[in-house]
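Regression test case RT-17, inverse folding.

Input:
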């Protein structure tokens, strides 16, 4: 026995559900990782990074990375200046960050995927470069679970806040001074598929610095 009022409430809740469905599904289309309109990307969304067939099996510093990966990586001997100011080879970065650097350090072409060398390079604000002294530490500089400073929240606090149950957001493992540790990577703060729809592809919105407060007890 539903009156018109009840019907319209029902209609409104369907609309709300649809909005939630749109939010919880991927947001790569329309994000800055939506390459479909870029001339270098063959009008493909996933292909510059992943391929269903003939993918490279990427292993970096002994750790598997890059599922069905299709994009070229920085050369094995590529030198970075780490946050600590050391000149270090690839091995100083964690495996996720290396995947990002395959476009963002500017040494490898954007269209270097599927075996092509490519010729279009990232420029402008998206270019991070190889000098990481002015970027939030990734890889070796960000040791965990034994941080050098005690201002970091317990791991579970920010794992819940920043990552939810996202598999991808987990910290990367790597060897630091001979000990296997979990480290912060580019993909700790950023979600390459734009899931959640936050600006700068962030995992959570950084309004009022809440991304920073998730880890730093300041
Ligand atoms: C800019 C690069 C980039 C683009 C574009 C991209 N991905 Fe990814 N994707 C990644 C990275 C980095 C990972 C993590 C790699 C790893 O697990 O080692 C990943 C992981 C995944 C995973 C496994 C983990 C997860 O998050 O579920 C799936 C599935 C996936 N991508 C599907 C897609 C599909 C489908 C598209 C196109 C709609 C796409 N990706 C576009 C970079 C990208
Ligand atoms: C296939 C090349 C490619 C790979 C791999 C890639 N990116 Fe990007 N990324 C781009 C391009 C192209 C842009 C757009 C730059 C621009 O608009 O000038 C971009 C933009 C971004 C932005 C800027 C977002 C904004 O809204 O301004 C962030 C953050 C970012 N990428 C993070 C990452 C992270 C983290 C990874 C690794 C998990 C990654 N990217 C891997 C090509 C790539
Ligand atoms: C601790 C969190 C954190 C880590 C780790 C991190 N980022 Fe970011 N990144 C941010 C935030 C927050 C922004 C938003 C803009 C700002 O505050 O500069 C951002 C902005 C960006 C942008 C856009 C810059 C612009 O001006 O358009 C790019 C590209 C980017 N990050 C790539 C990377 C890459 C590549 C890595 C790994 C080397 C990385 N980020 C590691 C938090 C992080
Ligand atoms: C996933 C957790 C995490 C997030 C999110 C995060 N940080 Fe960090 N941050 C770390 C870790 C780990 C270190 C390494 C130093 C340490 O052990 O204390 C660090 C180091 C730093 C340092 C000190 C570097 C030094 O010289 O010792 C600053 C400053 C900093 N982060 C600022 C930020 C800001 C600003 C944000 C938000 C954009 C942010 N962090 C987000 C984990 C995080």
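Golden output:
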């Amino acid at each position: 026995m539903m009156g018109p009022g009840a019907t319209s409430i029902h209609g409104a809740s369907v609309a709300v559900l649809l909005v939630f469905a749109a939010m919880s599904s991927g947001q790569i289309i329309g994000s800055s990782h939506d390459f479909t309109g870029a001339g270098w990307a063959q009008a493909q969304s996933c292909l510059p990074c992943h391929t269903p067939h003939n993918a490279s099996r990427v292993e970096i510093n002994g750790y598997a990375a890059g599922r069905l990966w299709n994009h070229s990586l920085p050369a094995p001997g590529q030198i970075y200046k780490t946050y600590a100011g050391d000149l270090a080879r690839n091995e100083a970065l964690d495996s996720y960050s290396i995947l990002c650097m395959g476009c963002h350090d500017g040494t490898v072409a954007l269209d270097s995927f599927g075996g092509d060398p490519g010729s279009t390079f990232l420029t402008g604000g998206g270019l991070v470069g190889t000098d990481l002294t002015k970027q939030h530490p990734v890889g070796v500089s960000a040791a965990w679970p034994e941080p050098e400073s005690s201002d970091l929240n317990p791991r579970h606090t920010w794992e819940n806040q920043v990552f939810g149950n996202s598999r991808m957001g987990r910290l990367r493992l790597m060897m630091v001074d001979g000990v296997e540790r979990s480290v912060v990577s580019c993909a700790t703060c950023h979600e390459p598929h734009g899931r959640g729809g936050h600006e700068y592809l962030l995992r959570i919105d950084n309004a009022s610095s809440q991304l920073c407060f998730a880890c730093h007890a300041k």
